[in-house]
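Most newcomers find our protein records easier to grasp once they have seen one. Read left to right, the backbone structure tokens trace the chain's path through space. Once this layout is familiar, the rest of the handout is easier to follow. The record below serves as our worked example for the rest of this section:


***
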Amino acid sequence: MRGWPRCLIVSSVLFAVACGGAATPELQLIEDAAEAMGGLRTVRQTTALTLTGEGRTFRLGQNTRPRSELPYYEVADYLLQIDYANQRWRLGQDRTSTFLTGGPLNGVRQTYGLDGDVAYDQQGDRMVRGADEVAADRWAEMYHNPLGIVLLALDETSTVSNLREEGAERVVDVVAANGTQFTLHVSGDTGLPSKVTSSSYHPNLGDVAIETLFEGYRETGGLGGSQARLTLPRRYTTNLDRFTISTYTTTSDPGADVGDLSAPSDVRAAPPPMATATVEVDELAAGVWRLAGQSHHSALIEFDEFLVLVEAPQSETRTLAVIERARALRPDKPLRYVVNTHHHYDHSAGIRAAVSEGLTVVTHRVNQPFFEDMVARRHSLVEDALTRNAQPLTLETVSSGAPHEITDGRRTLQVLRIVDDAHSDGMLMAYLPRERILFEVDAFSPAAAASPFAENLLRNIEDRGLRVETIVPLHGEVATLDELESAVRRTQSL
């Protein structure tokens, strides 16, 4: 990762700027934007920024339906400190859940940041290093505000090009020395930056655009006291693809001392984490296995001539490892189906990998457009398994009425909708009647801090007349019906 230039380099371009004229129309737009923000010289001399305020962060991929509104956390005590001179930033915020969940938060502090090419996160009482792709995204995020993107565009190692008009705005592309490209929109009315966009990669959505909109500009204190002030936004709204993922109302202080935002030395020295998968096999009954090992589990069910996988969660890496392990258990039988319990991104992140392996996807019919779109999406920034081995989507959908059955005449797997599930409108459970085993996820997890969906799961079991003895939560350990009933009684007593 390149370092921030600390001094001006004498060149013909800088000479032209020093003489009062930008070298290109694109740079002229940048200088004009800097003047509108409080002055070119003031902007150039500003190397840090502190934002305080409040807002909301939205849980991408956790809505009740694929296109419904996202649930969100209320955010208080938001503090974002950016050190442009050293390419560092740190964010701290207190989050409170506004939705039903098994792990509710009430003012819990979240802290994470960036130190050059090192992403770091606070986990308990220690900092841990993030993956390289996280660091790349956070590096780009540092310039998703007017001061940052203008400073980057003024950097002589950046390239500013392709001046154009889009409606009432003037637009340029800014390419940093490391190749990261941004698009800056400048208002034709105010001359102030109105939004910035950049590209990123999302395992479920593929190539995505991230845009941050700037609103409510207000003059704020800056270098030199009242004689040198910057005009900066109060409101920041960030969208990823078609979803809003955060909104903040802030007060800016370009003159605050941000201190040392560097990552701890042990974090910098640690290698970035790599995607890994641990698959532990537990046989629950003859021809029925739980494929566990991390936070999200799968199940494998053997039929006379084929195998069925329940869940392809968490990541491509985990799903491919689960598929490999499943095939190793019964190498003489094809793995034919994967049952997806619901569309939430942590439970559908492996679906593209499953499709690349030729599996038929079984899901609730409300999710059909979602999976059709997911499989069709472009994954060029990172070539995933389906990009490398393109296969068509084969889909079987489950209605809200009679169970969808997968059977060989000897063993039957019933796939049923969990009616009135507040977590996901298309939530499915899978049931083996002969073995009296129920597979479910997110409705009941024995070790969860709370069980807000357990009562509804029990009601569905009773209303369907299911003779359940063993419950296999695909989070946590295997449980019994008695344990589910106990969790319901605890919830009712609160």
